Amino acid sequence: AAQKVVDEIKAAGGEAVANHDSVATPEGGKAIVQTALDTWDKVDIVINNAGILRDTSFAKMTPEQLNPVLDVHLKGAFYVTQPAFVQMKEQGFGRIVNTASGAGIFGNFGQTNYGAAKMGLVGFTNVLAQEGAKYNIKANAIAPVAATRMTEGLLGPLADKLGPEYITPVAVYLAHESCEVTGEIYSCGGGRVARIFVGVTPGIVDDELSVEMMGERLAEIRAEDGYEIPTSMNEEMGIAIKAMS
Questions:
Q1: C-alpha radius of gyration, the chain, whole number
Q2: Could you tell me the strand order of the sheet in which 137-144 lies?
Q3: Does residue 227 carry a catalytic annotation?
Q4: Suppose 103 and one of 98, 115, 136, 171 were both cysteines; which one would form an S-S bond, judging by CB atoms 3.0 to 4.6 Å apart?
């Protein structure tokens, strides 16, 4: 598949090179980045999109179904991005796009392994956005809904409306030098693009909080009016401290 894409890019007049190392090992990640450095002398963009599925219900899931999914999706992104991130820091520029999923953000039956890996990438993206900020490194995530070889059996008749060509503009924009957002997640598919975010409700503050009070005031705790969207753990702590003051 990698070589096919290379051939298509070259046929269209572009430059491309394939690497067939596995993202699931530190050595493979370094080799992939080194191939780019050997070819173009630098790495400006990393798009982490390697993936596999090993779906089954949680009660039936085995380590053989769990570990490969974590290795490819979560560890693979780490192993490829780390050597590239070092290069990006040195040159003072970088764009990182991670492929998350609604299966992790919202949950999906039979995908505890995949959902955990994909939600791990959300945390990964958030931390990279903070660590890369002073080096002009932007990190964002997409949660695509697209018909691919991996998902065609799941989408049924919707597959015709969810071609991967609708994902490409979103990924390319987030990888472009003009993109200034960082630490954000975008749901995309079929021409629709929407931001996904994590918010914090005002909640309650009571020095006499008890188990009983939790039950009595749960609706108030869950009320969404006046929510805030912190962009770091420190911001979330600041919101909590302000409420307690």
A1: 20
A2: 45-48, 94-99, 137-144, 185-189, 192-196
A3: no
A4: 115
pTM over 0.90: yes
CA distance 236 to 227: 12
Short-list 116, 105, 4, CA closest to 66: 116
CA atoms within 13 A on the CB side of 82: 13
Selecting among 79, 114, 166, 186, the annotated active-site residue is: 114
Letter string b/e over residues 74-107, b meaning 16 or more CB atoms within 10 A of that residue's CB:
bbbbbbbbebbbebbbeeebbbbbbbbbbbbbee
Q: Which two tokens stand for residue 93?
A: 């520029």
User: Where do the domains of the chain lie, and which CATH numbers do they carry?
Assistant: 2-196 (3.40.50.720), 211-244 (no CATH)
Burial of 111 (0-12, 13-18, 19+ CB in 10 A): buried
What is the DSSP code (8-state) at residue 160?
G
Maximum Cα–Cα distance for the chain, whole Å? 70
- Tens digits of residue pLDDT in 173-231: 999 999 999 999 999 999 999 999 999 999 999 999 999 999 999 999 999 999 999 99
Burial track 133-144 (b if 16+ CB lie within 10 A, e otherwise): eeebbbbbbbbb
The pLDDT assigned to 187 comes to: 98
